Amino acid sequence: MVKIGIITGSTRPARVNLQVAEWVKDFAEKMDLEAQFEIVDIKEYDFPMFNEDVPPAMANKEYSQDTVNAWSQKIDELDGFIFITPEYNKSITSSLKNAIDYIGPEWGNKAAGIVGYGSTLAVAATLSLRQILGNLNIATVTPFGAFSLFTDFENMTTFKPAEIHNATMENVINTTVNWSKGLKTIR
To answer: Could you state one GO cellular component term attached to this entry (predicted)?
Structure first.
């Protein structure tokens, strides 16, 4: 049994990111795989902007140490990830990049699927995230989930994906779970 964290990629008050994460979790749980899925909401960690002289785990600052320790422990206990990312200015959000940057080794030798959404299906954000994750030794799977703000969201606020995405999402989830099982053997 592997543990897959569904990582939210936005902290904005009016975000739709959590809706997408919840939909992915429900979809994955119906697939009857040998995996546990949980939503890991970066908003709950309330990271200050990463602006340290040394990595936060080495910094001696009380304001971030508890948050960093909790984040480190959560990511370390997971075997793989499905990142839910909106596209902002052809990239991922600063809050997601900030959360990723707070730790390092905890990410390594794990698999990740990516589910993006935006006016252009979050293609640029997905490519950006793949590069970032590759630098942390995370194996990103293909294909990736790609949702349109215009056709998969009602009034751009309520997530209602078209059924045409189901086959792709099954592939993203299956491949993430399978790669997570395989990579678990080398950690």
So the answer is: cytosol
Q: Find out whether the peptide bond into 143 is cis, omega within 30 degrees of 0.
A: yes
d(CA 119, CA 122) in angstroms, rounded, equals: 7
Which tokens in the block code for residue 129?
């995230």
Instruction: Give the range of the structural domain holding residue 145, as residue numbers without chain letter.
Output: 2-184
pLDDT category at 165 given cuts 50, 70, 90 is very high
Gap between the Cα atoms of 139 and 152, Å rounded: 27
Q: What's the CA gap between 180 and 160, in Å, rounded?
A: 28
Cα dihedral across residues 29, 122, 141, 138: positive or negative: negative
User: If phi over 0 gives left and psi between -120 and 50 gives alpha, with beta otherwise, what is residue 171?
Assistant: alpha
The two three-digit tokens of residue 60, written as one number:
């001696």
Q: Quote the pTM value.
A: 0.94
Q: How many structural domains are present in the chain?
A: 1
Type and span of the H or E element at 134: helix 123-135
Residue 68: band (very low, low, confident or very high) from pLDDT cuts 50, 70, 90: confident
pLDDT one-digit tens code per residue, 15-46: 999 999 999 999 999 999 999 999 999 999 98
CATH number of the CATH domain containing 149: 3.40.50.360
